[in-house]
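Input (structure):
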């Protein structure tokens, strides 16, 4: 029995020890399991945190993720604002930008390039299939297929389902008026940078997108000038034409037309001649319109008056040069007669009388030796004799030897008729007040009484002289004709003319200068073969005035020209027994 109890006691002690060992073992295993779980959870948390930080870095902290996403740098979302709009003086839209799509290809993902090229060419009529195929076979990861496609084209290309084709959002510059303002507005490149005209001059403001550029141009007058000048070019088979209308008090350019012109949406398709902005960049010898300035210089000097006479009995010889009149009178001419008959001889004698220094100084004040201060990059530098000799004084007096842009001519004419203040031409409206007075905006260049005398002479030219075809019933138009022979290789060609008419209205209280110029016009049966300024350009000015005046609420005055006719009768030609009202050469 004792033995049994001893055996039981030993077994019981061993079992208790085993139970204790098992408990210790399970506790140790549990601790190890917990440690592993904590380690796993920590690894997951660290991984999750790393991924979260990476996503934040890519989406929130980086402004340009193109390099990290593997996309080509040329491909980026359109974050910048659309290019700002341009409007005319009345708020009519003439240039704006639209968001458009462009399609590009990762050619390494294109499996059947010829088939894809055929499909794209069918959707994109402006792109040639061989050129598309060349791009798709270039092996490049990024290459443009077509820029600025339509939403319909984007939908059709997307429906093809080719993974190697993708789209980039860009902007497209749109010109609602087509070529009407082509040379003035200019155009942009495919990346939206201003290349010419107002688009280039105001590129920074337009790129910012928060400003509307408002022009001084009136679309209504621009349409009128464009239509009438185009018709005259066609009628007289002219090579080119220029039309300008400017407010004589503010310098606002109301209309600026240069023909031929181009489509600013597709400037690359235009001929070189159509891309040339003649109104501001072209410089021309303007012929007899320059007599307006030499006459003003003489009158403003105080040494010449309306009653002064100059010998025009015979041609003027100077060395090997001879100066003739188109229709000579063979007698002494008064100052008004010199202007009305457009006498080269009388004008040259008058310039000789006041002297070279006086004429050069006056032309300098008129801005004829500097570029026009206007907000366009395309501005032509005048050409004038250097050195300036005495013979140049004679020829420059009637418009030969000095070449200026049409805008030069209009600006200077405005100063002569607005009371004598030279103003700065404006193409873009600003909030700054502009008024006709000496100061930062204007400089006095002639006396007020000289301005009045010039206006009387201009009025007489239309009523009784070479500009009679600029006459408009009810509106007192004044002006001066100009017909210059073009200089080719140092020789003046009689049949290559630059014919113009510089008009002012209402001449009793001038508000606008209107210029029409035709380059190399040809006479017709209606003009008896003549292609001079009085025949081909003066009628354009008359038609513009006739349509523009009612738009600007300028009332007609049907008695205005009676006064001028009385003045013309006063200057009766005693030699021929005719009044100046019945005489005119239309040159």
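Output (sequence):
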């Amino acid at each position: 029995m004792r033995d049994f109890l001893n055996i039981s006691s030993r077994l019981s002690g061993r079992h208790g020890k085993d139970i204790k060992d098992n408990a210790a073992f399970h506790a140790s295993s549990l601790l190890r399991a917990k440690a592993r779980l904590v380690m796993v959870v920590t690894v997951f948390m660290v991984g999750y945190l790393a991924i979260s930080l990476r996503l934040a870095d890519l989406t929130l902290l980086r402004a340009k993720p193109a390099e990290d996403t593997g996309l080509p740098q040329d491909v980026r979302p359109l974050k910048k604002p659309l290019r700002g709009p341009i409007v005319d003086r009345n708020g009519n839209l003439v240039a704006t930008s639209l968001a458009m799509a462009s399609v590009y290809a990762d050619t390494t993902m294109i499996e059947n390039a010829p088939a894809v090229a055929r499909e794209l060419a069918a959707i994109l009529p402006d792109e040639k299939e061989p050129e598309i195929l060349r791009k798709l076979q270039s092996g490049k990861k990024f290459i443009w297929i077509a820029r600025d496609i339509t939403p319909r084209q984007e939908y059709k290309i997307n429906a093809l389902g080719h993974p190697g084709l993708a789209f980039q959002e860009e902007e497209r510059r749109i010109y609602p008026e087509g070529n009407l303002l082509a040379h003035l507005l200019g155009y942009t490149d495919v990346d939206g940078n201003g290349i010419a005209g107002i688009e280039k001059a105001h590129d920074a403001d337009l790129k910012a997108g928060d400003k509307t550029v408002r022009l001084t141009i009136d679309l209504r007058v621009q349409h009128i000038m464009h239509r009438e000048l185009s018709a005259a070019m066609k009628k007289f088979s002219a090579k080119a034409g220029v039309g300008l209308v400017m407010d004589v008090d503010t310098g606002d350019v109301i209309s600026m037309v240069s023909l031929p012109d181009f489509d600013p949406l597709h400037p690359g398709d235009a001929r070189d001649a159509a891309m040339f902005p003649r109104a501001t960049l072209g410089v021309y010898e303007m012929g007899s319109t320059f007599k307006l300035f030499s006459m003003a210089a003489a009158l403003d000097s105080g040494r010449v008056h309306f009653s002064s006479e100059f010998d025009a009995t015979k041609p003027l010889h100077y060395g090997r040069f001879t100066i003739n009149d188109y229709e000579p009178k063979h007698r002494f001419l008064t100052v008004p007669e010199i202007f009305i008959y457009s006498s080269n001889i009388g004008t040259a004698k008058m310039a000789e009388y006041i002297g070279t220094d006086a004429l050069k100084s006056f032309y300098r004040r008129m801005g004829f030796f500097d570029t026009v201060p206007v907000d366009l990059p395309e501005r032509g530098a005048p050409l004038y004799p250097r050195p300036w000799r005495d013979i140049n004084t004679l020829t420059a007096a009637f418009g030969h030897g000095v070449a200026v842009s049409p805008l030069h001519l209009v600006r200077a004419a405005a100063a002569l008729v607005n009371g004598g203040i030279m103003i700065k031409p404006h193409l873009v409206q600003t909030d700054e007040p502009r008024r006709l007075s000496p100061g930062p905006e204007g400089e006095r260049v002639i006396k007020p009484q000289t301005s009045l005398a010039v206006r009387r002479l201009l009025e007489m030219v239309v009523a009784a002289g070479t500009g009679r075809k600029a006459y408009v019933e009810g509106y007192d138009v004044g002006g001066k004709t100009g017909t210059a022979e073009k200089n080719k290789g140092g020789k003046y060609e009689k049949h290559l003319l630059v014919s113009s008419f510089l008009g002012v209205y209402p001449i009793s209280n001038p508000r606008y200068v209107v210029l029409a110029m035709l380059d190399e016009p040809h006479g017709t049966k209606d003009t008896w073969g003549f292609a001079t300024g009085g025949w081909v350009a003066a009628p354009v000015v008359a038609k513009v005035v006739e349509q523009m005046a009612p738009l600007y609420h300028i009332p007609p005055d049907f008695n205005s020209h009676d006064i001028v006719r009385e003045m013309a009768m006063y200057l009766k030609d005693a030699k021929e027994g005719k009044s100046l009202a019945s005489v005119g050469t239309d040159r």
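Notes: The domain at 86-214 is CATH 3.90.1310.10 (Penicillin-binding protein 2a (Domain 2)). DSSP finds 20 helices and 18 strands in the chain.
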